[in-house]
Design goal:
By secondary structure, the protein is mostly helical. The protein has a single domain, classed as MetI-like (MetI-like fold, Orthogonal Bundle). The longest helix has about 40 residues. The radius of gyration is 20 Å and the shape is flat.
């Protein structure tokens, strides 16, 4: 590998990594909100809402993320709905993340002692008050490891948005390779940046997992 070429490519890929982080953070935040409401609906006694929520998770967990991204960016324009590459990426990643987060949160809710639900019911709490004030705060502590895994997975899966012309780390590496014919340097730096980002966030989530652990 040529050191000079590495020095030339690094700033370009470092800048692209900020786009990767932006996509990941926005998608996981939106995905967490979608997942929380979906999990609550799946556990509610409303059959219609539960069925809709179940269909959503079945659809987005059962189809490839790449297909979903292509649908939002390449498919919807045929029916008159157009998104920019960034908008399509955010929508696709968020909805995909939301489906997985829904199952993670649902599992966390089910792990909370049922006696607490009964206690809230006896105190006159509504279903949503019970979730907001008692269950979800405890659920958050339970699901931190799984949320961390979903975050890391999403960070790596953002590489798929390169197929809809989003210029993030992977797309930048492909463009550098195409212009310089130096694939080793381009993909080596990209791999190192992905490892750096995943290592940082793994450490952060591990820290909060230990801090919030309930013994």
């Amino acid at each position: 590998m040529d050191i000079n070429i590495l020095k030339e490519m690094f700033p370009v890929l470092l800048k692209a990594s900020l786009i990767t982080l932006e996509l990941t953070l926005i998608s996981v935040v939106f995905g967490s909100l979608i997942g929380m409401f979906t999990a609550i609906l799946k556990l509610s006694k409303n059959m219609l809402m539960g069925t809709i929520a179940g269909f959503y998770t079945w659809l987005f967990r059962g189809t490839p993320m790449l297909l979903q991204l292509w649908f939002f960016y390449f498919g919807l324009p045929f029916v008159g709905i157009k998104f920019t590459a960034f908008q399509a990426a955010i929508i696709g990643l968020s909805l995909n993340s939301g489906a997985y987060m829904a199952e993670i949160i649902r599992g966390g809710i089910l792990a909370v002692d049922k006696g607490q639900f009964e206690a809230c019911k006896s105190l006159g709490f509504t279903y949503f008050d019970t979730m907001k004030r008692v269950v979800l705060p405890q659920t958050f502590k339970i699901i931190i490891p799984s949320v961390g895994n979903e975050f890391i997975t999403m960070l790596k899966d953002t590489s798929l948005v390169a197929t809809i012309t989003m210029v993030e780390v992977m797309r930048s590496a492909q463009l550098l390779y195409a212009s310089s014919f130096r694939p080793m340097e381009a993909f080596f730096i990209a791999g190192c940046l992905y490892l750096l980002m995943t290592t940082i966030f793994t450490t952060v989530f591990s820290y909060y997992e230990k801090k919030l652990s309930v013994y």
